[in-house]
Amino acid sequence: MKQKLKQLAATLKAEFQVYKRVLAHPKTPLAAKALLWLALAYLVMPFDLIPDFIPVIGQLDELIIIPGLVYLALRLIPSWVVEECRAQLKKETCMTDFQKLIDGYRRFHDNYFVTDEQQLFAELSQGQKPSTLVIACSDSRVDPAIVLDCKPGDLFVVRNVANLVPPYEQGGGYHGVSAALEFGVSALEVQHIIVLGHRQCGGIKALFEGIPEGMDGEFIKPWVGMAKRAADRVNAEHGHETADDKLCACEMAAIVVSLENLQTFPFIRTRIEQGLIKLHGWYFDIINGEMKAYNADQLKFETLV
Ligand SMILES: [Zn+2]
C-alpha cells in the first residue's frame, strides 16, 4: 500500500512537470492556460465560487471546482502539445541521468581512485584474485558489489536476466555465462559461487506469469524458459498460496535450479568433490532488506542476515 502511494505520488509529480511545460507552450490555447491558472489559484487560496450555505456542494467546492477547471482546460489543449512536452521532458531527464554518470566517474576518480584507494588500485593493476564468483540479476536495484559492500577486486560477477545459470553444454556457441564460470573457476580459482536472486525479479515474473503484452521480443522468453522446472515445482508445491507468495517461491526455486545447473559443469563438480569450491544460493528481499540462504540439507531458504 505504502509502495503504491509512493508510486502514485511519483506519477503525479511527473505529470505536474509535464503540465508545467504545457502551460508555457506557445500552442496551448489561452483559455486553457487561464483555466489552469484559475485552478491553481483556487488550490492555493480557495475563494467561494459556490456559497457555503448550499448543502454539501458548498462545503466541498474545492473538490468539484478544481478537477472541473482542470478537466475543461485539458479538453482545450491539443493532445500533441502534451505529448511534445512529455517527450521533451523525457529527453532532458535522460540527458541529466547520463550526465550524472560522467559526474559520478569524476567523483570516483578524484575521491577514490587517486586518493582513498590509490594503493588498492595499484595492486589491482597487477591482476585480480577474487575469492568469490557471483551470478546476479541484471536488475538495477541489486548490484552485488553494493549489496555485499565489496570493493573492486573482491567479486567476479556475472549478471543476466533472472540470475540464471544454463546447464553445461558441449560445443561452441555464445555461452557467456559458461565462459565466465570457466574463467572464474579454472583461471581465478574462486572458492565460492553465490547465485544471488532477489524479490520482485522481472525475469522470474516473466517465467512464472508470462511475458507482459507488448514486451514479447525474441530473447527473454527462451532465456527465462531454461528455469521452467522452477515454475513447475512451485505450481506443484505452492499452488494454494497467494500470487505474491508463489512468485517469491519461484524466485527461490530458480536459484535452486541454477545451483543444480552449476553442478552439471565438470570443472565445478570436480572441485566441489575435492572440497575446493562451495556453492551458495542467496535471496535478497528488496522489500524488507532480509538476506536468505539456501540450506541444501533442509531443502529450504533460511534467514542469513
Ligand atoms: Zn531480477
From TrEMBL:
Cofactors: Zn(2+)
UniProt xrefs under Gene3D superfamilies? Carbonic anhydrase
Cofactor, how bound (note): Binds 1 zinc ion per subunit.
**Which parts of the sequence belong to the DUF1232 domain?**
32-67
User: Coiled-coil intervals in this record?
Assistant: none
Does the UniProt entry include the keyword Lyase? yes
Q: Which GO terms describe its cellular component?
A: endomembrane system
Q: What is its EC number?
A: 4.2.1.1
Q: Name one GO molecular function term.
A: zinc ion binding
Q: Does the keyword Iron apply?
A: no
- Residues recorded as binding Zn(2+), renumbered to this chain, are 137, 139, 198, 201
Where is this gene product found? Endomembrane system
Keywords attached to this Swiss-Prot or TrEMBL record, sorted alphabetically, are: Lyase, Membrane, Metal-binding, Transmembrane, Transmembrane helix, Zinc
Question: What catalytic activity is recorded?
Answer: hydrogencarbonate + H(+) = CO2 + H2O
Q: What is this protein called?
A: Carbonic anhydrase
Organism encoding this protein? Methylovorus glucosotrophus (strain SIP3-4)
